[in-house]
């Protein structure tokens, strides 16, 4: 029996809930037998969550005007979304080839980030930009402490495990 | 004596042996049931408060910068639910769900969880023995001691002899000084019925263990951390932080990872500056336990554990940050459009 060829697009569609039942079952079945693709799926989910957690940012002055001026037409924007869905549907097909995990295209996409990120954000209506490694982060130690104690209390004595959270003001 | 046993001697010998074995069995079996050993005492104490009606005051002490901090809060349980806290800081639990109804942090949604291994046995990483019986809040208690590989007592658990409720737990440093203690100062058992808030209508902001383990590998993380921690679960929080949850049977450890670099100006005051894996770190002694914040070039890490601080330090040396958030974020933004 031939194997379904997975792709990051397919996984993205799976995470977004855009696959029909048959396609979803096929993808999940294929995922179950591949730890490597399970890891890729986790990355997709993780990244989506990371971006959802970002605060909206305002585009710089004149940005939208420049993008609109360079966009061929509204149809071109619609076409991109249609093409994406069509490609996902066509990806859900049996293939005798072995699943590929990562290829050079991924690296190329990363390298193209600076040039196309703004346009991509415009097309999908994403009002946030991903964190960069240089972003300064204020770790929410109080919330982390709550999360840790709450998790710890499952499987341990709950009262003595949660009492410190109830009295502590650390990080607040 | 000719050295040969006569038939009468054989019968008497067989009878005596049978009697002795039977007597030992009678004496041994009930004893084993009544004496579960130190690990069994801890196991029972883990769930006893969930099955017992309790009303009392619980005190938390911790040593920070050479000074003991002491805070107290009420604790109540009715056999199915419990509430511990005071004022606007309360922790509530029922049916295996725990939440903080007054948490300042907004509930931003449900966390994603992968994997949920069972809690290790209490003696999986520590040598346990029974100490002399003691008394806590006027109640007789069995004392279980946890020793490290050098034989030093690093934790004590005081368990109610009648109900198995955990009355007190201490954590000690290598010199035998109690650095953190949670104990009942007053307790009434099987009295009253506490008013426990209703469960939240939506999922708690903090992740709960998943109902099953699909075996998926979500985030690369060490399965084991010295001296004895095992990875029990991985959680993706709504804000993008990843929580790796470890336990060693007596203590637990969470490592939170975020993309970026540490904004050291935002770190709470106090604590001690140090290093983890050659990276700058800041360590705090809190009521919850040891909190360590450190960072690599692109990942901010926060660890929280109730284990002795030296055990935490050993464990964190095994943590390898490998998230690489930025490339993945780029993939997410660009992937749907197939620019390649």
- Assign an overall shape of chain A: elongated
In total, how many beta strands of chain B? 21
Structural class by SSE content of chain B: alpha+beta
The low-pLDDT segments of chain A are: 71-131
Describe the structure in your own words.
The complex is a heterodimer of chains A (172) and B (340). Chain A has 172 residues and is mainly α. Chain A has nine helices and three strands. Helix content of chain A is 62%, strand content 3%. In chain A, helix 1 (8-16) packs across helix 3 and helix 8 runs antiparallel to helix 9. Chain B is 17% helix and 40% strand. Chain B has four helices and 21 strands. Chain B has helices at residues 7-34, 37-48, 309-316, 325-334, and strands at 53-64, 67-78, 81-86, 89-94, 97-99, 112-114, 127-130, 134-136, 139-147, 153-160, 166-172, 178-189, 224-225, 229-236, 242-247, 252-259, 261-262, 272-276, 279-285, 290-295, 299-305. In chain B, strands 1, 2, 3, 4, 5, 7, 8, 9, 10, 11 and 12 form an eleven-stranded antiparallel β-sheet that branches. In chain B, strands 6, 13, 14, 15, 16, 18, 19, 20 and 21 form a nine-stranded antiparallel β-sheet that branches. In chain B, strand 19 and strand 20 form a beta hairpin. The longest helix of chain B has 28 residues, at 7-34.
Structure, briefly:
Chain A contains nine helices and three strands. Chain A is mainly alpha-helical.
Identify the notable features of this structure and list them briefly.
heterodimer; A: mainly alpha; about 5% strand; B: about 350 residues; alpha+beta; nine-stranded antiparallel β-sheet; about 40% strand
Secondary structure topology:
The complex is a heterodimer of chains A (172) and B (340).
Chain A: E1 3-4, H1 8-16, H2 21-32, H3 35-52, H4 63-70, H5 74-91, E2 94-95, H6 104-111, H7 113-124, E3 136-137, H8 141-152, H9 158-167
Antiparallel strand pairs in A: 1-2
Helix pairs in contact in A: 1-3, 8-9
Chain B: H1 7-34, H2 37-48, E1 53-64, E2 67-78, E3 81-86, E4 89-94, E5 97-99, E6 112-114, E7 127-130, E8 134-136, E9 139-147, E10 153-160, E11 166-172, E12 178-189, E13 224-225, E14 229-236, E15 242-247, E16 252-259, E17 261-262, E18 272-276, E19 279-285, E20 290-295, E21 299-305, H3 309-316, H4 325-334
Antiparallel strand pairs in B: 1-2, 1-12, 2-3, 3-4, 4-5, 6-14, 7-9, 8-9, 9-10, 10-11, 11-12, 13-14, 14-15, 15-16, 16-21, 18-19, 19-20, 20-21
């Amino acid at each position: 029996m031939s194997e379904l060829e997975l792709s990051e697009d397919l996984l993205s569609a799976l995470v977004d809930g855009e696959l029909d039942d048959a396609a979803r079952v096929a993808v999940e079945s294929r995922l179950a037998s591949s730890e490597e693709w399970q890891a890729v799926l986790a990355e997709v989910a993780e990244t989506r969550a990371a971006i959802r957690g970002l605060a909206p940012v305002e585009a710089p002055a004149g940005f939208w005007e420049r993008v609109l001026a360079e966009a061929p037409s509204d149809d071109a924007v619609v076409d991109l979304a249609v093409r994406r869905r069509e490609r996902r549907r066509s990806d859900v097909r049996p293939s005798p080839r072995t699943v590929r995990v990562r290829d050079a295209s991924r690296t190329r996409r990363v390298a193209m980030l600076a040039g196309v990120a703004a346009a991509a954000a415009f097309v999908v209506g994403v009002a946030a930009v991903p964190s960069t490694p240089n972003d300064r982060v204020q770790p929410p130690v109080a919330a982390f402490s709550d999360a840790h104690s709450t998790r710890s209390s499952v499987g341990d004595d709950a009262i003595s495990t949660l009492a410190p959270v109830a009295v502590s003001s650390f990080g607040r | 004596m000719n050295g040969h046993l006569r038939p009468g001697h054989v019968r008497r010998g067989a009878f005596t042996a049978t009697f002795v074995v039977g007597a030992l069995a009678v004496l041994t079996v009930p004893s084993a049931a009544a004496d579960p050993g130190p690990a069994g005492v801890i196991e029972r104490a883990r769930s006893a408060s969930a099955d017992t009606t309790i009303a009392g005051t619980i005190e938390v002490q911790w040593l920070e910068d050479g000074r003991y901090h002491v805070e107290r809060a009420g604790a109540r349980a009715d056999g199915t639910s419990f509430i511990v806290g005071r004022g606007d800081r309360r922790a509530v639990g029922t049916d295996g769900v725990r939440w903080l109804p007054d948490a300042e942090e907004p509930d931003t949604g449900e966390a994603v969880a992968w994997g949920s291994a069972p809690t290790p046995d209490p003696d999986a990483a520590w040598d346990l023995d029974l100490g002399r019986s003691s008394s806590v809040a006027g109640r007789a208690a069995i004392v279980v001691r946890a020793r490290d590989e050098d034989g030093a007592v690093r934790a004590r658990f005081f368990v109610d002899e009648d109900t198995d409720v955990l009355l007190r737990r201490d954590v000690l440093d290598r010199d035998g000084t109690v650095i953190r203690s949670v104990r009942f100062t007053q307790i009434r058992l099987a009295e009253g019925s506490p008013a426990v808030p209703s469960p939240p209508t939506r999922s708690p902001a903090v992740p709960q263990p998943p109902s099953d383990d699909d075996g998926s590998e979500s985030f690369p993380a060490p399965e084991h951390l010295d001296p004895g921690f095992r990875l029990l679960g991985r959680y993706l929080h709504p804000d993008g932080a990843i929580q790796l949850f470890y336990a060693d049977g007596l203590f637990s450890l969470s490592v939170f990872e975020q993309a970026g670099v540490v904004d050291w100006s935002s770190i709470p005051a106090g604590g001690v500056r140090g290093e983890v894996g050659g990276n700058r770190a800041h360590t705090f002694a809190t009521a919850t336990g040891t909190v360590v914040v450190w960072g690599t070039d692109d990942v901010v890490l926060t660890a929280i554990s109730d284990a002795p601080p030296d055990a935490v330090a050993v464990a964190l040396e095994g943590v390898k940050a490998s998230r690489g958030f930025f490339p993945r974020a780029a993939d997410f933004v660009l992937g749907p459009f197939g620019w390649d």
